[in-house]
Design a protein that fits this description.
Pfam families: FAD_binding_2. One of its GO terms (molecular function) is oxidoreductase activity. This protein has 436 residues and is of the alpha/beta class. 34% of the residues lie in helices and 17% in strands. The protein has 12 helices and 15 strands. The chain has a 6-stranded mixed beta sheet, covered by helices on one side. Strands 9, 10, 11, 12 and 13 form a 5-stranded antiparallel beta sheet that branches. Strands 4-7 form a two-stranded antiparallel ribbon. The protein is elongated, with a radius of gyration of 23 Å. The protein binds flavin-adenine dinucleotide. Flavin-adenine dinucleotide (FAD) binds next to α1, β3, β13 and α12.
Amino acid sequence: MMPVANRVVVCLVAVALGVAELAPGPRRPRVVIVGGGLAGLSAAVEARRTSDVHVELVDKEPCLGGSSRLACDGISVLVAPADGGLSARIWPADGYELFVEDALRAGAGLADEALLRMLVRQSANVPAFVHSLGVRLGAAVRAPGHCRTRTLRPVEAVHSTERTLISALKDALRADPSVRVHTGVRVVDLLLRSDGSLAQVHFSPVAIVDPSAPDAPCKLEVPLDLCAAGAVLLDSSGRRFVDELAPCAKVAEAMLALPSRTATLLVDAPAVQAAGLANVLRSYEERGLVRRALGLDAVARTLGVDPLVLETEIEAYAVAQAWGVDPLGKTAFPTRLELSAEPGREAFLMSVTPALRGTLGGLRIDEDARVLAARGGPIVGLFAAGEVCGGVHGADCLPGNAVLECLVFGRTAGRTAALAARAAVAFDRATDDGER
Ligand SMILES: Cc1cc2nc3c(=O)[nH]c(=O)nc-3n(C[C@H](O)[C@H](O)[C@H](O)COP(=O)(O)OP(=O)(O)OC[C@H]3O[C@@H](n4cnc5c(N)ncnc54)[C@H](O)[C@@H]3O)c2cc1C
């Protein structure tokens, strides 16, 4: 079924498959949203907030949330709320260009600069949107690949940012009689053709290896805030091998070059406190994913490495920190890691490995989230946002930018789809009146 022919506007925010016929309404503008992840839910909320449209939200899974539920690194934005609320503090004037530069660098020449600039510009509205859902944002951290502190995490998040955002978005839709949710409904076809490609994938370098199921295909990701707060990565001999704050792709590449393809993430209690992740670490510990050790010798014993090697490494790191010159290129040292100087200092250890985090290829969209056909023009009535889209980020996506993309383009898609649906119904009415 063609969206416009039966006055359905389709908003693809999951995968590019299609839309089922869903009880066509008489004259009410209607938007069908395929996919109830972060992008789809944002689109649904925005469509309802900005227009009196009817929303049909379709998801193939029995519950909403998609892979967005697994993300945990917060949202990178241009504006940070000073108190987790609306009283926003604008970053320095160079903030916009620096954010764009960081994202373009990660994209390695493959990003869509116009869309990226729009993403960064509109990121300034995201804290207010998140706040309007009743989600408070905490202090910003400097996530890997970002040259500035600009990644925010919901205060209440236990493991996942998105679990908090997703439940807030679901709550916003739940009481709305104009929103119908169809779970367990897989969209199988669209009478439209589109020529996106699935070119790139992006990795999380720090997915946790569960000692009881090391080969489990689905892994939890360590919040990158922990790296941002001063965690170090060690190889099997107890030596650092990469700048922990380098772009994720670089860290992942370095880790995959290790014989075991895994590393140990070592973080001490002050860094955990600084990252506000004590609850997260506790929950990991309860699941057997984290080991604790008191002081350097205990850390060496737990890792099975030579204490002298580890001590030398930690001391070298302290020197790098003091001088701001690290042989591995690290330039930001948020907290001091001084296990050898303070023998009683508590440390946390996790085995980590790179894991697939998402895809970066897919449908091409314009700044109104309209899906572009192979020849370049927009496909009438079809909008997309989130991971189904390609090209926005290019070769790699910085932490917090995929979530940002869902919020910015998801809302854009919802808004423009609702407008298109209203325009289509208005056109029908005018045609009918003319015929009468
Ligand atoms: C472990 C992990 C960590 C991540 N960490 C970060 C991070 O640090 N920072 C960041 O910015 N991003 C991160 N991401 C990526 C980010 O979370 C995702 O890109 C984003 O949440 C995708 O949202 P989405 O709504 O586009 O897709 P999803 O959340 O995947 O939602 C898609 C929905 O579409 C549904 N669907 C699919 N096919 C069909 C069909 N045929 N019919 C009906 N429904 C269908 C699915 O069931 C799903 O519910 C991470 C992702 C993972 C998995």
